[in-house]
């Protein structure tokens, strides 16, 4: 699909029906834990729009055949769009802080939140993002006609589903097959027989470390289909970058740190990962943060042009599009209500001064414009970079207040990320001819159920963050990054391990250099330029995770080379199934352990 013009609305089609909203809410509730699980594992989440569209199509088609076509009406395209919008909004709730500032706050201060309080916080942050997205919709989607790649891909997939029903059914089967395989493997390993990690124990004579082997460093094959699935989604360039990062961090730097006695060798119950991560997180975070900020800076000219064009057009009552829009008065009233709710939540829950909370909310809309512009052009919301902007801002204002540093950034980064995610769904709706008002209702419902389900999933998976996070099982790389920035302001660089400042400078230099190269080199070269964010990520996750992600990316690349048509149709459903299956099984396993005391 090359055109991004809106489809004319099909007035006879159902849209915001009870079953469309209910289907989206149920699927969103099921898919949220997948993103929480993967976010705590590798710091990434998965856009669930296409997954929700395929699952709902398969479910209602099977139901219609089973109960009879006269009893169950056809599951129509725009109903599916409302379902997909709701489910996607729910699944994107992790951008509201679940896998980054919230656990980082617990690690630094010990403060935890109950399920109702955490749900309220997530909803308050996300609500600002919803209203910001709706306010920016006309300017970003209609006036500037930004591509929003994920939204375009979703619209194209939904159209394909209804144009080729047999093809859609096959995609659903592949998705469910991947989910069953992944879930069965995870449950078998958790409850029947622990599947071992496989790899040789090669000594490190060159570093004179008789007690450390390649197995201890994490160079293993891990039986995780989730990582394979994510690897297939991220692509070969990112996969290779992760492998290079793992070799540099765990194959070269870690043994050198042990040999130089900059990091103590593990004894007793200590692990290589647990000891080395205290040092490696600094160059890793520096690489990720500087790369994200430099890449973000390249998007600023476009943001300025957008501002010159007039953000006020977002509230325009006149439009050449067919869909009925939402009045500017309602948007302004809604945004003010959401802003008040977020300010009060910061004050009551975290004790943040009212004026500081108000400043965070004021920054939110500015950064939401930036996030929307970047996401609209690249498909990637710069949540990490925007969070760092706020952390740096409030870090200079109140350098020792880690709660303020983390949770104000949670508001701005989380709401801006939610805004950019929701604009992808609004783009799909625009292309399919959906009602903006119907999509808005679906988004509100989605963030509501997502807040409830997401906080429940987090509390079930991580009942004790202080002992469970930043381990081989739960590396939580996003938590590492947010925690490190807050610690840096509170304690200063002297609190970091010896030698880590030099490592940070090198990491920052690599991050800046690769980010600039990615932007200025011709495409034929830049597509092979390593990703600094992925290199940095490999410094803070176990090596076996990077290896599995690389294998998934490699398998997908080979399949695309040998069978491009088959790969275009089925790799994404298979990968989505692998991610969803292990994630849901992991949540089920954690819930079982919680209930049985195991």
Concise summary:
Keywords: Membrane, Transmembrane, Transmembrane helix, Transport. With 598 residues, the protein is mainly α. Helices cover 73% and strands 1% of the residues.
List the SSEs and their pairings.
Elements: H1 18-42, H2 49-67, H3 77-91, H4 101-109, H5 115-143, H6 149-163, H7 165-191, E1 203-204, E2 209-213, H8 225-234, H9 236-259, H10 272-298, H11 300-310, H12 328-350, H13 354-378, H14 383-397, H15 402-432, H16 436-461, H17 465-468, H18 477-491, H19 500-520, H20 523-526, H21 532-540, H22 543-562, H23 564-596
Antiparallel strand pairs: 1-2
Helix pairs in contact: 1-3, 1-16, 1-23, 2-3, 2-6, 2-7, 3-15, 3-16, 4-15, 4-18, 5-12, 5-13, 5-15, 5-16, 6-7, 6-15, 7-23, 8-22, 8-23, 9-21, 9-22, 10-14, 10-19, 10-21, 11-13, 12-13, 13-15, 14-15, 14-18, 22-23
Structure description:
The chain has 598 residues and is mainly alpha-helical. It has a domain at 18-183 and 310-317 and 326-465. Helices cover 73% and strands 1% of the residues. A two-stranded antiparallel sheet has the order 1-2. Strand 1 (203-204) and strand 2 form a beta hairpin. Helix 3 packs parallel to helix 16 (436-461) and helix 8 (225-234) packs across helix 22. The chain is globular. It starts with 17 loop residues before the first helix and ends with a helix. The model is unreliable at 1-6 and 310-322 (pLDDT under 50). Keywords: Membrane, Transmembrane, Transmembrane helix, Transport. It is found in: Membrane. Its main location: membrane.
């Amino acid at each position: 699909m090359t055109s991004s013009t809106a489809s004319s609305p099909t007035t006879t089609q159902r849209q915001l029906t009870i079953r469309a909203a209910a289907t989206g809410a149920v699927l969103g509730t099921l898919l949220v834990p997948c993103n929480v699980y993967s976010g705590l594992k590798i710091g990434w989440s998965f856009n669930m729009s296409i997954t929700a569209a395929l699952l709902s199509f398969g479910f209602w088609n099977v139901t219609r055949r089973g109960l009879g076509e006269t009893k169950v009406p056809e599951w129509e395209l725009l109903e599916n769009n409302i379902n997909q919008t709701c489910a996607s909004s729910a699944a994107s709730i992790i951008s509201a802080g679940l896998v980054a500032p919230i656990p980082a706050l617990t690690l630094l201060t010990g403060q935890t939140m109950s399920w109702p309080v955490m749900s309220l916080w997530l909803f308050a942050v996300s609500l600002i993002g919803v209203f910001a997205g709706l306010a920016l919709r006309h300017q970003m989607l209609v006036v500037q006609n930004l591509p929003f790649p994920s939204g375009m891909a979703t619209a194209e997939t939904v159209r394909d589903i209804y144009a080729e029903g047999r093809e859609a059914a096959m995609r659903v089967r592949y998705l469910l097959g991947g989910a069953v395989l992944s879930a069965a493997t995870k449950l078998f390993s958790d409850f029947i027989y622990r599947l071992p990690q496989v790899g040789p124990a090669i000594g490190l004579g060159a570093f004179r470390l008789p007690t450390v082997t390649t197995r201890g460093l994490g160079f293993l094959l891990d039986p995780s289909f989730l990582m394979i699935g994510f690897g297939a989604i991220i692509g070969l360039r990112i996969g290779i970058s992760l492998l290079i990062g793992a070799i540099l961090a765990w194959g070269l730097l870690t043994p050198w740190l042990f040999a130089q006695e900059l990091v103590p060798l593990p004894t007793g119950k200590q692990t290589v990962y647990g000891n080395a991560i205290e040092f490696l997180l600094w160059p890793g975070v520096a690489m990720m943060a500087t790369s994200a900020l430099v890449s973000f800076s390249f998007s600023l000219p476009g943001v300025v042009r957008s501002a010159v064009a007039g953000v006020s057009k977002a509230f325009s009552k006149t439009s050449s599009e067919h869909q009925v829009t939402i009045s500017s008065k309602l948007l302004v009233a809604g945004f003010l209500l959401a802003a008040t709710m977020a300010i009060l939540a910061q004050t009551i829950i975290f004790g943040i001064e009212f004026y500081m909370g108000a400043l965070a909310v004021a920054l939110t809309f500015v950064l939401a414009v930036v996030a929307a512009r970047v996401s609209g052009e690249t498909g990637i919301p710069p949540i990490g970079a925007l969070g760092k902007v706020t952390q740096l801002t409030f870090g200079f204002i109140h350098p020792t207040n880690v709660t303020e540093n983390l949770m104000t950034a949670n508001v701005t980064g989380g709401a801006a990320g939610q805004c950019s995610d929701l604009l992808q769904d609004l783009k799909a709706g625009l292309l399919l001819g959906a009602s903006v008002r119907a999509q808005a209702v679906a988004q509100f419902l989605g963030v509501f159920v997502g807040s409830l389900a997401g906080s429940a999933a987090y509390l079930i998976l991580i009942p004790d963050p202080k002992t469970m996070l930043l381990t081989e099982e739960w590396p939580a790389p996003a938590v590492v990054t947010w925690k490190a920035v807050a610690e840096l302001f509170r304690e200063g660089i002297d609190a970091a391990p010896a030698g880590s400042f030099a490592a940070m400078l090198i990491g920052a230099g690599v991050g800046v250099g690769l980010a600039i190269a990615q932007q200025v080199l011709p495409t034929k070269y830049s597509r092979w330029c390593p990703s600094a964010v992925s290199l940095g990520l490999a410094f803070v996750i176990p090596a076996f995770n990077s290896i599995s992600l690389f294998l998934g990316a490699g398998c997908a690349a080979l399949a695309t080379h040998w069978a491009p048509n088959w790969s275009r149709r089925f790799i994404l459903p298979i990968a989505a199934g692998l991610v969803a299956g292990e994630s849901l099984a992991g949540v089920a396993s954690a819930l079982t352990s919680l209930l049985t005391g195991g």
